[in-house]
Amino acid sequence: xxxxxxxxxxxxxxxxxxxxxxxxxxxxxxxxxxxxxxxxxxxxxxxxxxxxxxxxxxxxxxxxxxxxxxxxxxxxxxxxxxxxxxxxxxxxxxxxxxxxxxxxxxxxxxxxxxxxxxxxxxxxxxxxxxxxxxxxxxxxxxxxxxxxxxxxxxxxxxxxxxxxxxxxxxxxxxxxxxxxxxxxxxxxxxxxxxxxxxxxxxxxxxxxxxxxxxxxxxxxxxxxxxxxxxxxxxxxxxxxxxxxxxxxxxxxxxxxxxxxxxxxxxxxxxxxxxxxxxxxxxxxxxxxxxxxxxxxxxxxxxxxxxxxxxxxxxxxxxxxxxxxxxxxxxxxxxxxxxxxxxxxxxxxxxxxxxxxxxxxxxxxxxxxxxxxxxxxxxxxxxxxxxxxxxxxxxxxxxxxxxxxxxxxxxxxxx
Amino acid sequence: xxxxxxxxxxxxxxxxxxxxxxxxxxxxxxxxxxxxxxxxxxxxxxxxxxxxxxxxxxxxxxxxxxxxxxxxxxxxxxxxxxxxxxxxxxxxxxxxxxxxxxxxxxxxxxxxxxxxxxxxxxxxxxxxxxxxxxxxxxxxxxxxxxxxxxxxxxxxxxxxxxxxxxxxxxxxxxxxxxxxxxxxxxxxxxxxxxxxxxxxxxxxxxxxxxxxxxxxxxxxxxxxxxxxxxxxxxxxxxxxxxxxxxxxxxxxxxxxxxxxxxxxxxxxxxxxxxxxxxxxxxxxxxxxxxxxxxxxx
Amino acid sequence: xxxxxxxxxxxxxxxxxxxxxxxxxxxxxxxxxxxxxxxxxxxxxxxxxxxxxxxxxxxxxxxxxxxxxxxxxxxxxxxxxxxxxxxxxxxxxxxxxxxxxxxxxxxxxxxxxxxxxxxxxxxxxxxxxxxxxxxxxxxxxxxxxxxxxxxxxxxxxxxxxxxxxxxxxxxxxxxxxxxxxxxxxxxxxxxxxxxxxxxxxxxxxxxxxxxxxxxxxxxxxxxxxxxxxxxxxxxxxxxxxxxxxxxxxxxxxxxxxxxxxxxxxxxxxxxxxxxxxxxxxxxxxxxxxxxxxxxxxxxxxxxxxxxxxxxxxxxxxxxxxxxxxxxxxxxxxxxxxxxxxxxxxxxxxxxxxxx
Lengths: 414, 297, 355
Prior knowledge:
The complex is a heterotrimer.
Chain A: H1 2-18, E1 30-37, H2 44-63, E2 71-78, H3 83-96, E3 98-102, H4 106-119, E4 123-124, E5 142-143, H5 149-163, E6 172-178, H6 181-184, H7 187-197, E7 200-206, H8 214-224, E8 228-232, H9 237-247, E9 255-257, H10 264-270, E10 280-283, H11 292-303, H12 315-338, H13 346-353, E11 382-387, E12 390-393, H14 402-413
Parallel strand pairs in A: 1-2, 1-3, 3-4, 4-5, 6-7, 6-8, 8-9, 9-10
Antiparallel strand pairs in A: 10-11, 11-12
Chain B: H1 2-36, H2 43-58, H3 64-87, H4 95-116, E1 133-135, E2 138-140, H5 142-163, H6 166-176, H7 178-183, H8 188-214, H9 227-234, H10 239-264, H11 272-283
Antiparallel strand pairs in B: 1-2
Helix pairs in contact in B: 1-5, 1-8, 1-9, 1-10, 2-3, 2-4, 2-8, 3-8, 5-6, 5-8, 6-8, 9-10, 9-11
Chain C: H1 13-17, H2 23-43, H3 46-71, H4 79-96, H5 101-120, H6 128-148, H7 150-153, E1 159-161, E2 166-167, E3 170-171, H8 175-197, H9 200-210, H10 212-217, H11 222-248, E4 250-252, H12 258-271, H13 276-302, H14 307-332, H15 336-349
Antiparallel strand pairs in C: 1-4, 2-3
Helix pairs in contact in C: 3-8, 3-9, 3-11, 3-12, 3-13, 4-5, 4-6, 4-11, 5-11, 9-11, 12-13, 12-15, 13-14, 13-15
């Protein structure tokens, strides 16, 4: 029976340790932010860069005295890109008294939409979830705070139009996408624009896990022979697409990728910046370390005797984390200010988020304007191109085809 | 017409080569099942582990062959350890216990990189160039050609091993009936270890080649998903089946993407091999080359 | 369950199969009912109730999978796909026809049962791992059909928002209210499984698991019972999917992918194959273990790491600990929590006079 005693002992030890050590005391001058992250699941290669960026910005704010005197405490929960842990995380944030939450993952965003509304806590979903969430009247507590896939589609077509000499009539555009709801979402915008701009659109689906797309790329380069390729891929598949297109002799300067195939990691995995020269990417946050706020973060670490975070190597994701954190902090700041320094409720923080305007953090954040109607902030994007061994800025922030997107948003609301 | 023909042949060539790359992963799975009856659901994670070892060795500019050697050494040692610590206590348990143990192992392996070496994507550069070799649209990247060569070499080696060598015949005896093999004086445990070592070697090369194609991070483990239609189609315990199954899956995927996708809105590539697999199983329940198990009451 | 008998006094098969072998068992049951229906919901914070809610939903799914894998011996790795069948059936009925949950819930289950029986057809010829991979094919095909059929999925986003369940005009939406909703169905599922297992059908399932040829020889129609097993298992999965839909307020197939099937396999293997109690314990264990590991680690690791590093360390260590626990569990106690529980009971049966 010694085995049994061992089990009993182990169970008792776990039970003792697991006893909640009293609720973390909500201090007077403290605001709690809840952050969902995926560091161990299907999208961990994004999470392990994005979430540290979030934490580093919050540390920076705290090291400078916090938001209007309030220190910020981040409670992060790794949801493994699964839905049940995301629900558990949401309840935990609520228990800790979080004034806002940062969502992570499209299925998780969908699963929590209703709960956020009932609990009246806002959730931000930059790059996740549905484009329709831009409509603040329909989804009052969901904040994409970044260009949706619709806006990215519009932005990419505008970029293609510019690159092809200002006229798309009779041109051919291929859309290579991951065969999931996120990949199919921009189709309606492309189809609309194909009609109004007069280009021929053909779509090529890559099913999960997307580690191989020889046949699709052959179809594009051998049969369709498009003037431009727009890609919208996830995980490891963007690097495969770069490699395959390059291998079949298609010029990468005629390829533009949506935001999740746009990081340094994708370029490196595809074989490096040399090979991927000319590859265009859409971004909803600035790229690189050449921003005042990143320098501030590194100075803060230097003052503590630490090196700059290694996660900055993949600055595309790291900076997105910084941008999300910065917008969260601004929302809280607006709420505290509006209340004259008193502790804001989650609902007041939501109104604080809806009054963000003209906050660009030295060019890292697009010039977005959040309102109770528009939770996307205008759908601003920037194109960054692989050039001279790094991602270089290719033009300023821009919006495109807003009337088309507004039309579809209105149709969704009906 | 000429264009169409060229397109079709390009599709088939690309499918055949990628199919053999799948076979490379599947071979490791089949070897273990054939000799020890264990089902390894962590095959993809094995490949990932080997990829990480190779990438870490290549980072300080080690020669490619040293990196491959290190990957093989680590994988063989790892497979030995796994067999002794985890799988041997499970001998005689329902197969589902082994399946679950390897799934748990997979979770562990996926959790390790972020805390040990960091979560970023690493490149495995084999210094064989990136530009495809071939003519016209029928061309293959060098790494895929290497993959094809390695798979065919392993196939030849294992076929010879099982048919001609003394050890290979002993291993077949072990696979056929462990008790009788033991009675004939065969050291069954040693052959179990040998089977795992062989599987480790195959996984190591799979890791290097797929790692060089995709880059090494946790996503590399996804190649494990491609193993199942291949081994089931070919037969779980057949080396030839792994190769033929891989070729069929590769070509079916390629043709589905080229000719079915445009009509149904895409994405058939992933499950087309499975449909073919089910149809095949209805006629041959143990795959094309799998051993038919005779059950007695 | 908790009671100790002084010896075996059973004289009939009926007594052997009784759900309550001793009169005191009724009291134990009453105490458990009291605990779950009154004490827990009154004493626990909403956060802990939300964890129990997730476990309750998992219990329903695990029971169904155990019916197929544990009792009938047919391995399936497509369980999650049947959940999505149930979820979309219920969501479409609830939204398009405005039907209440007590119609959509059984409808979702029945639809899943129908699809499950169709998927089960290859089991008539294919066995073991070959069958397991055939069910994996079903998973991929069902996912593809939902993803590519707007009539089912409700548009490109493939998600359908569902109103909360209402009971006598009350909307159930807090974790406390949903707790009772889920507890009711979980209890019903447990009761049904207990009774099914000791019926003629349950015995036929076990005979097929132990050896299907032998079962056929003693006169069991194995084709009928294999398909029935697939149908019943999928019915449970469908209901589990509907419960998820109402709990989250949305049906979305991306919540039911292959990884979920694997999680449910883990539940029944850790809990114990072919055991109702095992399914319940396994579902609770797999749902709560990662949370418990995290709750234990957060204060401990907090002593050594800063807030940012902490999240990273906790997340990966948790996955490693989870994998290691599953493996050590299988190596040390391959028959699962159910067996462990019986060992504990046997130990205390003669305690303190062990011999």
